């Protein structure tokens, strides 16, 4: 059964009638630009074919109800405030709350969810859920919510209702990406540019490797990195680390007395530059040449930002040894996925090399697939 069929069937099973429609939103891979989003910097994600589908329809009782193929008993709630709905249902309640806080009259609705975005893998399953639900509620209510406003509403649901201090990257990718393109996003101005991302035309592919070392954003590590970045920016007298250029980096690091702050700042400043350099190469059609930038990004996340784990480091090294042009962890860190830029005919051998490296270390076997740039949230 396909994901849309599963969502439709779950709706009928839970509510005894057909859904009014289906809405889908994708997970994402961040090609480069990690932890730069909440530093007002630059990111370059693309949407995955894997997606969360919301089957939805009006609710006659004036409340909101949501179930999923993983949790068939509906979570039912009325108008709530942060903290009143917990668990996975908080992501849906958060969207209702954030839309209401933004001044929109949210239609009561019944929703059933199905998804093939891997959970806890750094591919933004939470943003896919939020974006699918948000798109469904906007359409059901005929709400006039401009596309450019939607990521911030979904982000607020995750930040202020769920309590995960994520930046704008994930929701922007899930809502605003276009098929066959990477999304170049300025996280300060929210300006975007769709960057053509034609891998097949150059005989290349992106292999995504799920390390199967799950991560969680609501834990303390993600928040600690964000606080360190804010502390470094404050010490340097700038609004955000985005305002420090690579040319200014040496002088800025001298001003930071704390070694941890120095390393956190160095990652953000150099990562922003790597995003800009990657975009420039893609504009020129020099896709293969972004490989060293991807690997340098991983090294920075490992050494300066300290957000990798042994499984992802092993996957990156094994992919590079197998001939990948570049490889890096993608996502918030402490587990999740690795992406590798490879020759299109090397997917199977690269995945096998990573699996062998995992077996030698006794890790849970990884899972791998070739990712293509898919579309953003929409009714299907």
UniProtKB/TrEMBL annotation:
Residues 10-58 form the Galactokinase N-terminal domain. Coiled coil: none annotated. Keywords: ATP-binding, Carbohydrate metabolism, Galactose metabolism, Kinase, Nucleotide-binding, Transferase. Residues 91-175 form the GHMP kinase N-terminal domain. Signal peptide: none annotated. Residues 280-359 form the GHMP kinase C-terminal domain. Its EC number is 2.7.1.6. PROSITE patterns: GALACTOKINASE (PS00106), GHMP_KINASES_ATP (PS00627). Belongs to the GHMP kinase family. GalK subfamily. PANTHER family: GALACTOKINASE-RELATED, MEVALONATE KINASE/GALACTOKINASE. This is Galactokinase. The lineage of its organism: Bacteria, Bacillati, Actinomycetota, Actinomycetes, Micromonosporales.
């Amino acid at each position: 059964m396909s994901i849309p069929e599963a969502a439709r069937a779950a709706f009928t099973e839970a509510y005894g009638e057909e859904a009014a429609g289906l809405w889908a939103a994708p997970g994402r891979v961040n090609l480069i630009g990690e932890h730069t989003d909440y530093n007002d910097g630059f990111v370059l994600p693309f949407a995955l074919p894997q997606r969360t589908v919301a089957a939805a329809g009006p609710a006659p009782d004036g409340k909101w109800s949501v179930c999923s193929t993983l949790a068939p008993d509906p979570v039912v709630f009325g108008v709530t405030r942060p903290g009143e709905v917990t668990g996975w249902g908080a992501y849906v309640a958060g969207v209702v709350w954030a839309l209401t806080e933004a001044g929109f009259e949210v239609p009561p609705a019944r929703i059933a969810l199905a998804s093939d975005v891997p959970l806890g893998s750094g591919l933004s399953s939470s943003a896919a859920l939020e974006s699918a639900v948000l798109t469904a509620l906007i359409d059901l209510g005929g709400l006039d919510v401009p596309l450019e406003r939607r990521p911030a509403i979904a982000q607020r649901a995750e930040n202020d209702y769920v309590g995960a201090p994520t930046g704008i990257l994930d929701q922007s990718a899930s809502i605003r990406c276009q098929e066959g393109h990477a999304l170049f996003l300025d996280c300060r101005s929210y300006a975007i540019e769709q960057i053509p991302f034609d891998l097949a035309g150059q005989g290349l592919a992106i292999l995504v490797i799920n390390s199967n070392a799950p991560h969680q954003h609501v834990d303390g590590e993600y928040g600690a990195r964000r606080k360190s970045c804010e502390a470094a920016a404050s010490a340097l007298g700038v609004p955000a680390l985005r305002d420090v250029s690579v040319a200014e980096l040496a002088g800025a690091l001298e001003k930071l007395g704390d070694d941890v702050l120095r390393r956190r700042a160095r990652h953000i400043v150099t990562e922003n530059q790597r995003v800009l350099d990657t975009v420039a190469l893609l504009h020129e059609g020099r896709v293969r040449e972004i490989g060293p930038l991807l690997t340098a990004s991983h090294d920075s996340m490992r050494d300066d930002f300290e957000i990798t784990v042994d499984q992802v480091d092993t996957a990156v090294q094994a992919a590079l040894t197998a001939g990948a042009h570049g490889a890096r962890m993608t996502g918030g860190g402490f587990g999740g996925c690795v992406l590798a830029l490879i020759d299109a005919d090397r997917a199977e051998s690269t995945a096998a090399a990573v699996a062998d490296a995992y077996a030698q270390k006794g890790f849970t076997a990884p899972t791998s697939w070739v990712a293509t740039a898919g579309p953003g949230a929409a009714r299907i």
